[in-house]
Amino acid sequence: xxxxxxxxxxxxxIQGIAEFFPVSSSGHLVxxxxxxxxxxxxxxxxxxxxxATLLSLVTVFYRDIxxxxxxxFTGLFSKNTRKDNPHFKLSLFIIIATIPGAVAGxxxxxxxxxxxxxxxxxxxxxxxxxxxLFIGEYFGKxxxxxxxxxxxxxxxxxxxxxxxxxxxxxxxxxxxxxxxxLPGISRSGSAxxxxxxxxxKREECVRFSMLxxxxxxxxxxxxxxxxxxxxxxxxxxxxxxxxxxxFVFAYLAGxxxxxFLLRFSKIRNLNYFAIYCIxxxxxxxVLFFINKGGVF
Length: 296
What we know:
About 80% of the residues lie in helices and about 0% in strands. The chain has helices at about 1-20, 25-35, 45-75, 80-85, 85-110, 120-145, 165-180, 185-195, 200-225, 230, 235-265, 270-290. The longest helix is centred in the N-terminal third of the chain and has 33 residues, at about 45-75.
């Protein structure tokens, strides 16, 4: 019983941190059981962990979320709001960037489920994440040297708009987020890297990717809860204790990861996370070949 609770705590911490660090939370939830020879986590537990990280996002960004939602619905009926309120345009960017991920999740979820039990593929996809991060930083810095960083941060609201972002850019960033349906490809890393291609300031890319994750995470939570409803509300006391432990630690780790990355992105680039992804991928490859005798 105690061992199962400790496993739940470890997985909660991993989910909370990896959900926002550009290192792929889904990939880590596959790799941790592989590395420690644990059973793969059930869908209902993954659902709870994602809901915990969603709440950590809401805790940090509740003011921005409230302003964006208010501006969106006000803008539907007010031309002046559509024209003058930057939160309204930001709400449209979020909607547009969410569509590719929602479509991919709905139509391709069954096709990619097999990847969630194959650590080798996670290792390969982690290398893709590393490549995205390196490329995003390279072109982001190149753009900034040529034109100066694009800056649209509003000190009062945290983020009211992101200059350099338009409807086409938002759609491209959404495609990057959609690719992250594959375990090992970081959702936040892809969104940030694709945004950096347009010269958007790093910390604003981070903030936008976090806001962008809210609707897609909420949608995935609803969809997966529907699929595993009976397990989520299980009366089994052991399961409920594990769920509670994982939830609490995922929430707390998520708060830490969000605040850390917001500060970190202002002074450091994200290549450190790319190097981490490469190291973890190499470890996975080595262990896989040792276990399989060098045969895929």
